[in-house]
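tool_call: predict_structure(chain=1)
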Amino acid sequence: MNISADDIARLDSLVGDWLPLPDVAEILDISVTKVQRLIEDYHLVEMRRGNPKVRSVPAEFLLDDAVVLLLRGTIMVLHDQHFSDAEILEWLFTSDDSLPGRPIDHLRRGQRGEVRRRAQSLGF
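tool_result:
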């Protein structure tokens, strides 16, 4: 995925803290290969950041040493709507006054209903 430096800077300002895949593996107590599989299976979304480029995921995708439980379904809905990984990250971390708040915060609190409804409606 090729995105501009400005897009990466915008995502950095929205997301805040990022974790390289080895750090995610350590927190989850699994191998980096298994973290890569979580990305392939839509449990996580990654972004290549920095110089040199390092595969990283938002720190807020993890909660209590586990992947946020409701994240996968929302990522899958957004992928089904043909969102790129960068667009998924931007949507999850951008405040929505109608929620109110950021979708990621609702998912971290276990509130998926409104988040998924909004994600599904993006395709219409």
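agent: The two ends are 25 Å apart (CA to CA). Proceeding to next step.
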